[in-house]
Design brief:
14 strands, Rossmann fold, 17% strand, 17 helices, 5-stranded parallel sheet
């Protein structure tokens, strides 16, 4: 990895690099999305044949319950136990996050409350590139079930046995063999064979990301998604652990971003050597090599304050503080998920701790956190005003409506006097 001084120019370089739009992907995705919106099933099947080399029709689109059951029996007991363990932890965290109904008497005769109801139907997109990501299914479907969503539709172009076993474990039965921008469009607009959903969850490649951006005007999507990011900030720590975290996130995608910020030249050099050692353990085809060559760097900060300032500006998807420095932690404000201490390996958060791994990228962690059960519900305010409460608030409304020159708003209370 390159070792660079963390100065204004370097910071600007790494902050601006990820802000670039992807007009080529948007153009391709727009063509596919509009075609599926217009022609429905026919376009969905045509694009699937063209891009995924799979011949699908209404009868072969959905995976049968028998296939799901067979897949569940084909995986190892060890994997089944791991799926159950991970799902249990994800469920426990989601249950703690669940918003609740409440009611409050604001003043005599004025009651305001909140009613929480689940979304009716959600789409869960599971990438099917090099490998179908079973963890993505758990991270979307389990919080949805905790929220009470009655219908979960899964789209995965090439679901492997692990994905189908997880679906069986969770009781999911609607799994479509579709992927890419055409899958996003079919979920967003509905076709004869695919139901229209209220909201789409799950990451994907650049075309999936572009398609989600396009359909977001008509169908809700989970959160802005981009290439995986990892930022490790430390003044001390185990260099091998740090290197392993950097390489682990870098292997997600050749466009993944992996940065290590430190004030220690010695630690920087040691981590650099350990990264090379970790890469030698991986196959030549592992994406981590390209990702680290393109977007990996070790940045030498002049001070802890400078390191924290850059971290807050970068607002990474994954942020590790392996040394657990209290002074540093106190300065860090923006990250999708923070891993504290040497044993908090980032891959544990990806799979098993229970914290959701669907996280904001591209700096969006400055304004929101990762996926949670609240993303699967809608909250409605409920207001009930008695005659006594009306009499108290009626003059307040008339005064404010007059200030805004909204005569009908004033009339709305005047007719009730």
């Amino acid at each position: 990895m390159r070792i660079l001084p963390l100065n204004d120019a370097t910071a600007r370089r790494y902050l601006e690099r990820r802000r670039a739009s992807d007009p080529a992907a948007l153009a391709v995705a727009a063509r596919i999305v509009r075609d599926v919106e217009r022609r429905g099933d026919r376009a969905l099947f045509d694009w699937t044949a063209r891009l995924d080399k799979a011949a699908l029709g209404p009868r072969t689109l959905w995976i049968s319950r028998k296939e799901i059951a067979v897949a569940q029996r084909s995986v190892t007991p060890e994997l089944l136990r791991a799926l159950e363990h991970a799902a249990r932890n994800i469920r426990r965290v989601a249950e703690r996050q669940l918003p609740h109904d409440w009611s409050l008497v604001v003043e005599p005769g004025v009651r305001v409350g909140q009613r929480v109801t689940p979304l009716d139907t959600i789409g869960c997109y599971v990438p099917g590139g090099r490998h179908s990501l079973v963890s993505t299914l758990l991270m979307a479907a389990v919080p949805a079930q905790v929220a009470g969503v009655p219908r979960i539709v899964v789209a995965c172009p090439k679901p492997n046995a692990a994905v189908l076993a997880a679906a069986h474990l969770l009781g999911l039965t609607e799994i479509a063999r579709i992927g890419g921008a055409q899958a996003i469009a079919s979920l967003a607009y509905g076709t004869r064979s695919v139901p229209r959903v209220d909201k789409i969850f799950g990451p994907g490649n650049r075309y999936v990301t572009a398609a989600k951006q396009i359909v977001s005007a008509d169908c809700a999507v989970d959160l802005p998604a981009g290439p995986t990011e990892v930022l490790v900030v430390a003044t001390r720590g185990n260099a091998q652990f740090i290197a392993a975290d950097l390489v682990a996130q870098a292997e997600h995608d050749p466009d993944a971003r992996a940065l290590f910020v430190t004030t220690s030249k010695k630690l920087a050099a040691t981590v650099d050597a350990e990264v090379e050692s970790e890469l030698c353990r991986l196959p030549e085809t592992n994406p981590a090599r390209k990702a680290l060559a393109r977007n990996g760097a070790i940045l030498l900060a002049k001070s802890v304050a400078a390191a924290a300032e850059f971290a807050n500006s970068f607002a990474p998807e994954h942020l590790s503080v392996p040394g657990g420095e209290r002074a540093l932690l106190a300065k860090l404000r923006a990250a999708g998920s923070i891993f504290v201490g040497p044993w908090s390996a980032q891959s544990i958060g990806d799979y098993a701790s229970g914290s959701n791994h669907v996280l904001p990228t591209g700096g969006w962690a400055r304004v929101r956190g990762g996926l949670g059960v609240a993303d699967f519900v809608r909250t409605s305010s409920v207001q009930q005003i008695s005659r006594a409460g009306f009499r108290t608030l009626e003059p307040v409304v008339r005064a404010l409506a007059g200030a805004e020159d909204l005569a009908a708003h004033a009339r709305c209370v005047e007719v009730r006097r």
